[in-house]
C-alpha cells in the first residue's frame, strides 16, 4: 500500500459486491473498528463502483495480482466469492504472508485449513498451516452454536436435521430469482392445480432445481452415492469437524423454501446422557451466539423473518422426546448472510487481528 | 327426499363451500359415479349459492335438521366442516341411520370411531359402532401410505417427521391470508432486515401465528405439556392408530411454509430389519396411492407445486442412512385438500357405499 497505513491490520474484502459482501460492509460499519485500511475487491465487472464502508466512500477494484499490493504478514484477506475464485486466488494472498479467511466451500474439507465458528471452536483459528481459515456452510452455521452448547453438557450421540433454506443462500442470483418468480406467480390467476406454479414461473428457475415461489425444493448441490446431495454431505462433514466428533451419526435433508433471507432447521438430537428440556433451555439461553425464544402460545418462537438482519441463532420449540429420555427436538433460525457467512467471517478475522495486536 | 332417488346411496356434503368441499365436488365429478342424489349443505351464509357437481347446478342448503330429510340407512353424510360443527351434527345424522364420514378432528381420537386411510387400513371402515368414520389430519394423510408400505416390509421402529405445511390446510381463510400477505410484501420495498416482513404484513396474520409470506412458522394448534403442539401430538396419535402401532416412538415438528396447497414432509424412519434403499424404492413404487419420483439430478423429486391437484402421495429423495443399516430418509408431498381430506373422504365413502351395493 502506498498510502500510510492507519493503525490495525489492513483488510481486503474480495467479493465486496455480493450478497455476503454487502452484509459484510454493513457489519464492518457496526462493529468496533479494529482495521487499518479496508480494500474492496470484486470481479472486473464491478471495478469502479463506489461502496460505503465505515462511512467512507470506497472504490471497488478488480481482482488482479496488483489488488493485493502492500498486503503482507498481519493483514487479512476475506474471500466472499465462488469457490473457484477462492481456490485460485487464496494462494496468491498467502504467498505474500497475509492470512486468508474464506467463506466458500473451497477449503472446508482440507485438513490443513481449520474450519471455524468462533463460539464453538475459536481456538482452532491459531493453527493454520496454509495460512487459510475457512467458515462453514450457512446450514451448519445456523445450528452449530446450539449443538456445541448442548454437546458440552450431554454428549451428542445422533443428529437428524431438516433445513428450510432461504433463497439468498444462492447469493444475489438466488434472491433475485425468488423475487422474479414471486412477481410472476402474483400476476397469474393461480389456482391450486398441478403445474400452475411451473407454468407461471416457466423454465427460468434461477439457481434452483425447480420453481421456488409458492413451492418447496428438496434439492441443492450435486448427486452423490446413495441419493445424497453434495450439500447434505457437506453439512454432515462440517458439523462433525467443528464439533470434533468424526463419527457422529448425522442425517440431513436440505430443502429450499420461498424465504429471502434466514435459514431455519428442525433438529432432533440424541445424547449420551439423559436430557431435561428445562435444563436444555437454560443451557441454550446461556450459550454464546444463541438466543432462546420459547413460549409458543405467546407467539414466541423463532422465524426466519425475525432472524434476518440479526446476529444470533434464534432457538425455540425445545421439547424433550416423548419416547426417549435422551432426545431433544428444537427449531433454530439464523441469518444465512450474517451468522451463516459475513458475521462469522468477521468474527474469525477479528480473532486473527487480535493475535497481531 | 321428495324427488325419486336415482340408483345408489344418497350423499350429503356438509361444508360443500369450503376449501375441502370445493375440491370434493371436483373429485365427485371426476370419479365413477356411484351416488344417487347429492345434496350440498353449508352454513346459512351460503344457503342459495349454486355449485356444480357431476355437471349439474345444485343449490346449497343451510345446515338444519331438515337438511337431512329423506336420509337413512345406506346413505352417507360427509362432514367437511370445523370440528365443533361435526361434533354437534354428526349424531343428528347417525340417529337417522345414515353413516357419517367426518374429515374434522372431532372424532379422530374416539376408540369407537375408526380412523381410516383406505390404502392402509380400509378394512377398519366396517367396524363403526357409532356409525361414524373419521379421516386423518392432512399431515398424517400425506405420509401414511408410504409408511404403511415400508412398515409391512421392514417393521417400523422409530419415526422423526418435519412438515412443510401449505396455507390451505387452514381452509379458505388460510390460502386467502397467504395471498393477501404475498401482495403486501410484493408491494413493499422489502429489504433483508429484521421486521421487514412483519411490518409489511402488519397484525393481520390470518389463521397463522406469525406472518407466513416469505417466512416459515413453526407453530400450529394449542400448547400441550412439554412444549408440544396439539397438532404435533395429533399427527403422532393418528399415525400410531392407523398403523396399529400403539407405542411407536414418533417425533413430529409441524412447520407452516408459504405454499398455497401441497404438504411436504421429511421423514426419517428406523426399522426393525435392515433396509436397502433400492428395495425400499421398489416397495414405494408398488404401494397403492404412492408415486415414486427419485432421480434428483434429472430434476425428479417431489415438490408441493407438482403434487397439488393430484391424487397420490409423491415420494422421492429415498436414501439409506449413512450410519445405520436399519434407517431410511425420504421426502414426500401430497395435496392436503385431496389425499389430505377430500379424496380420502371420497374413498372412505365409496367403501361404505360398496357395502350396501
Ligand atoms: N449467501 C449465503 O448465504 C452464503 C453463506 C455461506 C457461504 N456463502 C459463500 O460465500 C461466497 C459468496 O456468496 P454470495 O452469496 O455473496 O454470492 P454472490 O452474491 O453471487 O456474490 C459473489 C461475489 O463474488 C464476486 N466474484 C464472482 N466471480 C468473481 C471473479 N471471477 N473474480 C472476482 N470476484 C468475483 C462477485 O463480484 P461481482 O459482483 O463483480 O460479480 C461478488 O462480489 C460463495 O462461495 C458462497 O457459497 C454464501
Ligand atoms: N384444508 C385441509 O387441508 C384439511 C385437511 C384435512 C382436514 N381438514 C378439515 O376439514 C374441515 C374443513 O376444512 P376446510 O379447510 O375446507 O375449511 P373451510 O375452507 O374453512 O370450510 C369450512 C366449511 O364448513 C362450513 N361451515 C362452517 N361453519 C359452519 C356451520 N356452523 N354450519 C354449517 N357449515 C359450516 C363452511 O360453510 P360456509 O362457506 O357457509 O361458511 C365451509 O363450507 C375442517 O375440520 C378441517 O380441519 C382440512
Automatic annotation (TrEMBL), chains A, B:
Swiss-Prot/TrEMBL GO biological process terms: amino acid biosynthetic process
EC number: 1.2.1.11
Key word Acetylation present: no
Keywords for this protein: Oxidoreductase
CDD domains: VcASADH2_like_N
InterPro entries named among the record's database cross-references: NAD(P)-bd_dom_sf, Semialdehyde_DH_NAD-bd, Semialdhyde_DH_dimer_dom
SMART domains: Semialdhyde_dh
Domain of life: Bacteria
Pfam family, one: Semialdhyde_dh
Top-level EC class: oxidoreductase
GO molecular function, one term: NAD binding
Family: Belongs to the aspartate-semialdehyde dehydrogenase family.
Matching NCBIfam families: PRK14874.1
Protein name: Aspartate-semialdehyde dehydrogenase
Species lineage: Bacteria, Bacillati, Actinomycetota, Actinomycetes, Kitasatosporales
Amino acid at each position: 500500500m502506498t498510502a500510510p497505513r492507519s493503525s490495525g491490520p489492513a483488510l481486503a474484502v474480495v467479493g465486496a459486491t455480493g450478497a455476503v459482501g454487502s452484509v459484510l460492509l454493513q457489519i464492518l460499519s457496526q462493529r468496533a473498528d479494529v482495521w487499518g485500511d479496508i480494500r474492496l475487491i470484486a470481479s472486473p465487472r464491478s471495478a469502479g463502483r463506489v461502496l460505503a464502508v465505515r462511512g467512507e466512500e470506497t472504490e471497488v477494484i478488480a481482482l488482479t495480482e496488483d489488488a493485493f499490493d502492500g498486503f503482507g504478514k498481519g493483514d487479512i484477506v476475506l474471500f466472499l466469492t465462488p469457490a473457484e475464485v477462492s481456490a485460485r486466488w487464496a494462494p496468491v494472498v498467502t504467498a505474500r504472508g497475509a492470512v486468508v479467511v474464506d467463506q466458500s466451500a473451497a477449503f472446508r474439507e482440507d485438513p490443513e485449513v481449520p474450519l471455524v465458528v468462533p463460539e464453538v471452536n475459536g481456538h482452532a483459528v491459531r493453527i493454520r498451516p496454509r495460512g487459510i481459515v475457512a467458515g462453514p456452510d450457512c446450514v451448519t452455521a445456523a445450528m452449530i452454536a446450539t449443538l456445541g452448547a448442548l454437546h458440552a453438557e450431554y454428549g451428542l450421540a445422533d443428529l437428524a436435521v431438516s433445513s428450510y433454506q432461504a433463497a439468498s443462500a444462492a447469493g444475489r442470483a438466488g434472491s433475485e430469482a425468488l423475487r422474479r418468480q414471486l412477481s410472476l406467480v402474483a400476476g397469474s390467476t393461480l389456482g391450486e392445480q398441478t403445474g400452475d406454479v411451473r407454468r407461471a414461473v416457466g423454465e427460468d428457475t434461477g439457481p434452483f432445481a425447480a420453481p421456488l415461489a409458492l413451492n418447496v425444493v428438496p434439492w441443492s448441490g450435486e448427486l452423490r452415492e446413495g441419493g445424497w446431495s453434495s450439500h447434505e454431505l457437506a453439512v454432515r462433514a462440517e458439523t462433525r469437524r467443528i464439533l470434533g466428533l468424526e463419527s457422529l451419526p448425522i442425517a440431513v435433508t436440505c430443502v429450499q423454501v420461498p424465504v429471502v433471507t434466514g435459514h431455519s432447521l428442525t433438529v432432533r438430537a440424541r445424547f449420551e446422557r439423559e436430557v431435561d428440556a428445562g435444563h436444555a433451555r437454560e443451557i441454550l439461553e446461556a450459550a454464546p451466539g444463541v438466543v432462546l425464544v420459547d413460549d409458543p402460545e405467546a407467539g414466541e418462537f423463532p422465524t426466519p423473518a425475525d432472524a434476518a438482519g440479526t446476529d444470533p441463532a434464534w432457538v425455540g420449540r425445545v421439547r424433550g422426546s416423548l419416547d426417549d429420555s435422551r432426545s431433544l427436538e428444537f427449531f433454530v433460525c439464523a441469518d444465512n448472510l450474517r451468522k451463516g457467512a459475513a458475521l462469522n467471517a468477521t468474527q474469525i478475522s477479528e480473532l486473527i487481528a487480535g493475535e497481531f495486536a
